[in-house]
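Quick check before the chapter quiz. The format below is the same one you will see on the exam, so make sure you can read both the input and the output lines.
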Amino acid sequence: MSANSSMSAGVLAGQATKLITERLSAIERLLHRQLELAQSNRRNALGSGSVAGGGTIGVAPGPIVNANPKRTGLSVQNNGAAGNLTLGLGTTQPQSGTGLLLAPGASWDGRVSGALWLGSVSVVGSTTGVVYSWLEA
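Here is the expected output.
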């Protein structure tokens, strides 16, 4: 074995060792984060409803999801076959067609300009009977 071959083998062994160490460190960080999430008291909330008479929610309009500074995810879906669902962000009684509109079958990922919305969400339908569901993490 020549001196150049021994040197190349040594360099390759050093690079391999460095790569393995970096990968193990990344795996350790992921496992640590998974453990944190598993041990936290985080819980998901799920709900659904139907827009009742006059295009308002229920008898007493109000948020379907309250403001939550610890929110890690949010999704709202218009499950109806007809009628738009208007989402009011930070308001208790949005006017139909004046907020974020979800057509039948459409959903919203809870983001505004790429950032997760932490405020309250209210809904109103363009027609009576619009069905919706939501999930908050």
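If your answer matched, good. The radius of gyration is 25 Å.
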